[in-house]
Amino acid sequence: MLNIVLFGPPGSGKGTQSKLLQKKYGLIHLSTGDVCREEIKLATPEGLEAKRLIDGGNFFPDKLAYRIVEKFLDSNIEAKGFVYDGMPRHEGQIDVFDGMLANRDSVVDIVIELKVEEEELIQRLLKRGESSGRPDDSGREVIEKRLRIYEDVTAPIAKRYKEKGVYHSLDAIGSLDDVLERISLLLEKCLTGQLVPVEVQ
To answer: What is the C-alpha to C-alpha distance for residues 149 and 92, in angstroms, rounded to an integer?
Structure first.
């Protein structure tokens, strides 16, 4: 089983690239946000709990995220592999997430961070907000706050995965096909043992 963790700031294209990787390699795209919304739609116990918390303006707790992810993994035990988008979201989730995989005789094979300059991210998100009406893409101030949260909360997972020898980053500027090709090259090197781990700084 191939386990890919794909992460990057809002607007880096990780959701889109995850779906492209799913199609190209026959993997399953596990987006914690999408899975949570599906649980809410189906009114499962986890979904009802998530809806109650979200409607109350509360943060989505790690323990509930773990339950939802584990449930998803167990319902896809025949999968060739997964592209994880949104798990782990911060350093505190790494050990639990790795433990989930270990309990299923699996490991994280590669972690890929999509790198995009901040101004490019802002312009992408503003454009997306115009077409989608998403409130979290509604203005520059809101977007800049989201990017700061990413830098403070999610970006630090890179160091932990560098220490584990599975972290790599790539330039996510360009067409969807160009970025997909760069990711695919990394994956093929990973599968053939040609990747050299990034040094921890």
So the answer is: 15
Helices and strands (H, E) in the chain, number of each type: 9, 5
Sheet bearing 2-7, strands edge to edge: 28-31, 81-85, 2-7, 110-115, 167-171
Q: Give dist(CA 108, CA 167) in Å, integer.
A: 10
- How far apart, in whole angstroms, are the C-alpha atoms of residue 38 and residue 69? 12
pLDDT at 197: 57
Instruction: Using 70 as the pLDDT threshold, list the residues of the chain that sit under it.
Output: 54, 56-59, 133-136, 194-201
Cα–Cα distance between 147 and 118 in angstroms, integer? 8
* CB-CB contact of 5 with 161 (8 Å): yes
Beta carbons within 8 Å of 179's beta carbon, 6+ residues apart: 13, 17, 114, 170, 172, 173
What letter represents residue 105's amino acid? Answer: D
> Within 10 A of 87 (CB to CB), how many other CB atoms are there?
23
